[in-house]
Structures are given as C-alpha cells and as structure tokens.
C-alpha cells in the first residue's frame, strides 16, 4: 500500500524533491541549486535542461536514501516558480532558448507598446494583472519576436509553451513519447492570457500579443490526474499542480476567505483567500487564482508580490561578499542595535506591489561614516519587513479585513531577528508552522486529494501545527517613524530607467 505522497518544488534558485507521510511530515528530501544566468543588465535566465536533469537526480537520490520504490508513492505533485517562461519544439524536445525568469525585465518595451495600443485596463479587467514584465505572455512574445525559427515553428503548430510546471510535467509523462502538455489555473492566471471569469485562454489577449494559440497548454484544475510518470518514478499519478505561492497558501491550509499567508523566498508573496469571488484591487495588488480542486468552484486570492527579498541576502553574499553564507546575515545584523538610519530598496527588477514601477532601480540611502557592515545587513533584513508592511496595508484596504495574525513560511523564516522585526512593524503576531516546506506540502496535498490519499480538507487542517510565534513589541511612534523613512527611501528609487532611451 502506498504510504507517501511526493512533491517536486521547482523554485527560482533550486529544486527540491520531498516525500510526505499522511500526517504531512517530511519522510525524505533532497535539494539542488541551479545556475542563475545574467546575459545583460535586467536579464535573468535558467537552463531548462539543467533543471530537468536536476529533478531526475533529486528523485533518484531521495528514493534511494529513503529505501522506497515507486509502489510506495500514491501520487506526485508539482509546484513551481511562476511566470518563468520556456518555449520548446514538440518534435525534438529542445528548448529554443534558456527560460526567461520572472524577474527578467527585457519585455518592458513590449508592455509599454501594449499599454499604448489598448490601455492597461484592457488587460487588468480580464486577467486581474497589470501590464508588467513580471508575467509570461510578454515573455512568450519576446521569444517569438526574436527567433525566426520559433515564430515559424509556432505558426506550424510545432512549439509548446510552458512555465516550469508544464515543462516538468511534459517530460515526466514521456516527453517526445506522449508527454502531456497541461498547466493548472494558478499558473495560467499568471500569463496575462487567461480570463479570470472563464478560466480559459482569452483569444483577444492572445491576438494582441501575436501568440499562436497552439503553443498554449490545456488548462486544468490544481488537483486531478494529468498523467502518469515515465521517468524518475514509474507509473505514479501526477495529480497536483500549483504555482509556488498558491501551493504555499494551500499548504498553510488557508481554505477560508480572510485566511492569509506570506512566503519569504527569493521574493516575498502575501496571499489572501477571497473565496469564490475575485476582488479587483484598487491598491496595486494582483487578483489571481488561489486554487481549484477538480470540478469544484475556483477559489480566488489577492496577492502582494515583492520581487527581491531572499535574493537581496544572496546579493549581499555573492556580489558584495560581505557574508560567506546566507545564514551569516543574522549574527552580523545582531552586531548593531538598529539600522543606523540605513535603508536599502532592492528594486533590482523595478518595484512590484503596491507600486508597479518598472522604472525604479535599487538604492541605498542614509549612508554616513558611522554605517558599517552590520547596519547594511540589518537594512537588508528590514527591507523585507518594510515591503511586507506596505503589501499588508494594501491588502487590508482592498479586502476590508483586518488581519489578526500572519502565517509565514519559506527559507527566511528561520531568521528570528527578521521575524521579530516583521511582527513589530506589522503590529500583528507572526506564526511559523512546524513544517516549513509548505510550498511542497501544498502540492503534495493537492496530489493526494486527487487520488484519495487524503479524503477532505479537514484532514489537512488537522495536520497544521504551530512551531513558533513572534509577538509585536514596538512603540507605535517608533514604527511610524521607521515606515516614514522607508517610504522616503522608496521614492528615491523612482525614475531611474527612461523607457524611451535607446539601449
């Protein structure tokens, strides 16, 4: 009898393969980083072949270390970095280029032209998304516009598009030998091509971007059997598919309207469950799909997306070399009592929610001879908390719901200094679950529900348990002064890029 559910968590900087038991506890895990490729300023790419090979290696390593076989696995779920875009040839299986990562800004001119032609509201009313370089549709258009072969093959029905979930699903289910070309509603909702009401590709939007409809995968629910594994695992149903932030929402059992979570990874993403109705944001948030279970009604969310949080720690490590390991940032930040009036606005790819300013670029403000590496480290951590505070304010304004606590997950939540400052600046308790890998857990839950490994949502709720809680302990006047300085620093990042200037 199968005793475990597996999940592939294909993230921005690494891929994980994790086994979960019926109680939602980790029974096996392996992880491997992949290269971050920067061909030009503002460009970010991944090698899709490297990611596919890493995935197979991780599955093999985990199964071997766990002493398990495919017969022990009831189902496999996939969760992925959203918006990262890939086109490949259906006949050869070869990608036309590296995948264009969600952080990449090369499509700014495409977005500007689309807005000039149709207006930003044309896209936002149908998709819930602003016209921004963040999303997949303009990336598809860019690849087709810059590859004569890709454009020709696409017009002849030979090209497949996918975010990383679709790429892995296609390969796992056979690739050239009958691979399944599908995605789920959460990933499709991040393309600027799916209609929020119909949950299908919108022909008007596809036509505006000159994308042949044949390249697009079939849109499915987040929890159903799409196919069976041919590689890595043998004949295991692949039955869960969620974008990473929606998977974290599901793994945090945020099943009721008003439930919210924040994931601290490469970027930072806060999602609020709004139920079966989608709410149009008036404060710079995204309206997006939360999840859809088989033939049940779709659940929608408001989302606040922050591009750079954990990536700022990596920048401190890899570019400035102030720390050797990411974990070194907390002890370095603790060498000082405060940020020394130093603020870092990490607008490396522009600013996402609630500003949506593609013209912004990163700044460090407040530097004096007094500032040292400890102040820089503390400012790096505080930037994550300040950005989250702005998203929370927008979310409360849009939803009319005052959050009483915030569930958190992701790699940065092991940082006690950051989590305490986050509680202080939000003025609400911050709660970390016992299972920190909630993104992979959400994909596993979706997969397991589809095959009956778990019978109902109450079983999943029963699995959730608190690990640690941080209680706010900051004077209101001090909190307000810090936020005022932060907003002043953010304003300094605006208008750095002139979209009309020649490159």
Produce a short descriptive summary.
With 503 residues, the chain is of the alpha+beta class.
Keyword list:
503 residues; alpha+beta; seven-stranded mixed sheet; six-stranded mixed sheet; 23 strands; 34% helix
How would you portray this structure in words?
The protein has 503 residues and is α+β, with helices and mostly antiparallel strands. Helices cover 34% and strands 22% of the residues. It contains 16 helices and 23 strands. It has helices at residues 48-66, 108-118, 120-127, 136-146, 148-155, 164-172, 185-188, 203-208, 244-251, 310-318, 329-333, 373-399, 416-426, 438-451, 457-463, 476-491, and strands at residues 4-10, 14-20, 26-33, 45-46, 73-80, 86-89, 99-100, 159-162, 182-184, 194-195, 200-201, 218-220, 223-228, 237-243, 260-264, 268-275, 286-291, 299-306, 343-345, 363-365, 406-409, 430-433, 466-470. Strands 17-18-16-15-21-22-23 form a 7-stranded mixed β-sheet. A 6-stranded mixed β-sheet has the order 3-2-1-5-14-13. A hairpin with a 3-residue loop joins strand 15 (260-264) and strand 16 (268-275). Helix 2 (108-118) crosses helix 3, helix 4 crosses helix 5 and helix 10 runs antiparallel to helix 12 (373-399). The protein starts with a strand and ends in a 12-residue tail after the last helix. The model has no long low-confidence stretch (mean pLDDT 92).
């Amino acid at each position: 009898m199968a005793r475990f559910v597996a999940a592939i968590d294909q993230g921005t900087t690494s891929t994980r393969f994790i086994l979960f038991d019926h109680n939602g506890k980790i029974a096996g895990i392996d992880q491997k980083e992949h290269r971050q490729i920067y061909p030009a300023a503002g460009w970010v790419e991944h090698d899709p072949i490297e990611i596919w090979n890493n995935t197979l290696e991780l599955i093999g390593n985990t199964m071997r270390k766990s002493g398990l076989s495919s017969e022990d696995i009831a189902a496999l779920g996939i969760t992925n970095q959203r918006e990262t875009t890939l086109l490949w040839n259906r006949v050869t299986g070869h990608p036309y280029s590296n995948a264009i990562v969600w952080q990449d800004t090369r499509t700014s001119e495409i977005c500007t032209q689309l807005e000039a032609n149709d207006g930003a509201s044309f896209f936002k009313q149908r998709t819930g998304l602003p016209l921004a370089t963040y999303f997949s549709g303009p990336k598809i258009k860019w690849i087709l516009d810059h590859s004569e072969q890709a454009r020709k093959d696409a017009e002849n029905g030979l090209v497949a598009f996918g975010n990383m979930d679709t790429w892995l699903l296609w390969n796992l289910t056979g690739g050239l030998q009958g691979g399944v070309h599908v995605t789920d509603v959460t990933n499709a909702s991040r393309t600027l091509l799916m209609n929020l009401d119909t949950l299908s590709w919108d022909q008007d939007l596809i036509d505006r971007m000159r994308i042949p409809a044949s390249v697009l995968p079939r849109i499915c629910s987040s929890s159903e059997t799409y196919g069976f594994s041919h590689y890595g695992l043998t004949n295991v149903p692949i039955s869960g598919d969620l974008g990473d932030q929606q998977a974290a929402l599901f793994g945090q059992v945020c099943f009721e309207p008003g439930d919210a979570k924040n994931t601290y990874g490469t970027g930072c993403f806060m999602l609020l469950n709004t139920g079966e109705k989608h709410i149009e944001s008036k404060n710079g948030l995204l309206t997006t799909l939360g999840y859809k279970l088989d033939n049940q009604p779709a659940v929608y969310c408001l989302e606040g997306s922050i591009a750079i949080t954990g990536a700022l720690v990596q920048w401190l490590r890899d570019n400035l070399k102030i720390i050797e390991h990411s974990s070194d940032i907390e002890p370095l930040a603790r060498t000082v009592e405060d940020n020394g009036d130093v603020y870092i606005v990490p607008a490396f790819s522009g600013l996402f929610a609630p500003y949506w300013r593609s013209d912004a670029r990163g700044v460090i403000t407040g530097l004096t001879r007094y500032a040292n590496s400890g102040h820089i480290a503390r400012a790096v951590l505080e930037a994550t908390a300040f950005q989250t505070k702005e998203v929370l304010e927008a979310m409360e304004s849009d939803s009319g719901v005052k959050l009483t606590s915030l569930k958190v997950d992701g790699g940065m939540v092991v940082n006690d200094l950051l989590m305490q400052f986050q509680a202080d600046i939000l003025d609400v308790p911050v709660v970390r679950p016992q299972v920190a890998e909630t993104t992979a857990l959400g994909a596993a839950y979706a997969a397991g529900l589809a095959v009956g490994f778990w019978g109902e949502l109450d079983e999943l709720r029963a699995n959730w348990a608190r690990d640690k809680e941080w209680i706010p302990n900051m004077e209101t006047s001090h909190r307000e002064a810090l936020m005022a300085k932060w907003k002043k620093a953010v304003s300094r990042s605006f208008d750095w890029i002139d979209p009309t200037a020649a490159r």
